[in-house]
Amino acid sequence: MRAVLTILMLMVCSTGVGEEQIPAGKEILYFDRNKMGIVTFMHQMHSMLDGVNCTTCHHTARGKGQPEDCHNCHQPEPQGDVPESAVAFHTRCRGCHQYTVDAGKKAGPVKRCTLCHIPPVKKKK
Question: Alpha carbon of 23 to those of 42, 54, 70, 109, 115: distances in Å?
Answer without folding.
Answer: 13, 12, 15, 26, 26
